[in-house]
Amino acid sequence: MKITDLELFTVRPRWLFLKVSTDEGYFGWGEPIVEGQAGTVRGAVEDMSDYLLGRDPLQIEDIWQTLFRGRFYRGGPVMMSAIAGVNQALWDIKGKFHGRC
C-alpha cells in the first residue's frame, strides 16, 4: 500500500484538517493545527508531501522518525503540529486497514 494523495481543508475560523489517501482506497484524517496559524502549518505539511507520497502508510514509526529527525531544524509548534496531523491520519489508516475503526 502506498500514500497517493494529501489534501488539506481549512475550516473557518481557525481549523485545518488533513486527509491522507492510499492506492488501496484507505484514507485517514488528521488535524495539523496551531490555532490561528493554519496557513503556516499548511505550508509545513505541503513541504512534507514530497517525502510522504509513495510511502507505505503502515510504517508509522519510520515516517515519524524521518519527519522529526531528518530535517535540519527540529521541533517547534508548527513542525510538531504538522507531524502530529500526519501521524493521526496514518493511525486512522492503520486502524481501518486492520478493521478496528
H/I helix tally: 3
Q: Structural class of the helix and strand makeup?
A: alpha+beta
SSE series: EEEHHH
Radius of gyration: 13 Å
Strands of the largest sheet, in order across it?
1-2-3
The number of distinct β-strands equals 3
Kindly report the average pLDDT value: 94
Largest sheet: 3 strands, antiparallel
Low-pLDDT segments? none
- The geometry reads as globular
Helix content: 40-55%
Beta percentage is: 15-25%
Measured distance between first and last alpha carbons? 18 Å
Describe the structure.
- Helix 1 (38-52) packs across helix 3 and helix 2 runs antiparallel to helix 3 (77-97).
- Strands 1-2-3 form a three-stranded antiparallel sheet.
- The mean pLDDT is 94.
- By secondary structure, the chain is α+β, with helices and mostly antiparallel strands.
- The longest helix is centred in the last third of the chain and has 21 residues, at 77-97.
- The protein is globular.
- It contains three helices and three strands; from the N terminus they run E-E-E-H-H-H.
Short description:
The chain is of the alpha+beta class and 101 residues long. Helix content is 46%, strand content 21%. It contains three helices and three strands; from the N terminus they run βββααα.
Topology:
Blueprint: E1 3-11, E2 15-22, E3 27-30, H1 38-52, H2 60-69, H3 77-97
Antiparallel strand pairs: 1-2, 2-3
Helix pairs in contact: 1-3, 2-3
List keywords for this structure.
single chain, alpha+beta, 3-stranded antiparallel sheet, 46% helix
